[in-house]
Amino acid sequence: MNRLEFVAATSIVLFIAFALGWFAYWLLHRFTRIAGADMGEVDRLAQSLHEAEEARDQALIYLEQRESELANHISQAEAELRAAMEGLRDARQEAEEMRAYIERMNAS
Predict the structure, then answer these.
(1) Do both 29 and 48 map to the same domain?
(2) Which of 47, 69, 66 is nearest to 58 (CA)?
(3) 51 and 6, same structural domain?
(4) Distance between CA 96 and CA 99 in Å, rounded?
(5) Do the domain assignments include residue 79?
(6) What is the pLDDT of residues 33-76, one digit of tens each?
(7) Which of 32, 61, 68, 71 is 20 to 30 Å apart from 42, CA to CA?
(8) Secondary structure E strands in the chain
């Protein structure tokens, strides 16, 4: 291999290496870049996500408040039910006592 062939082979190898490097850079840049329009889309999506998180937080707060209100109503209803059952029990006992009294009065 003479000097001219060596220079030609070296220049071809260097050109191929340059072309492969440039192509790899272009390919990498193509897949990883975020253009201005894409950045606007990312900002819009971030804003939507933020709003959705705020709405979720508000919904959770409302749910907790509503749950505590309903628990309070349930406890009040249970207390009223217990009071009504005790009143009914007392009324039945009083009615039974009145029947017994009437039967005793009728028997004598």
Answers:
(1) no
(2) 66
(3) no
(4) 5
(5) yes
(6) 765 557 778 888 999 999 999 999 999 999 999 999 999 999 99
(7) 61
(8) none
CA atoms of 22 and 29, how far apart (whole Å): 10
Please report the pLDDT score of residue 1 as a whole number: 75
Task: Please tell me what DSSP assigns to residue 27.
Answer: H
CB contact set of 1 (below 8 Å; sequence gap of 6+): 9
What is the per-residue DSSP string for 37-88? HHHHHHHHHHHHHHHHHHHHHHHHHHHHHHHHHHHHHHHHHHHHHHHHHHHH
Are 79 and 60 in the same domain?
yes
Residues contacting residue 9 through CB under 8 Å, at least 6 positions apart: 1
At 29, which amino acid appears? Answer: H
Domains held by the chain: number: 2
The two three-digit tokens of residue 24, written as one number:
């790899």
CB 65 within 8 A of CB 73: no
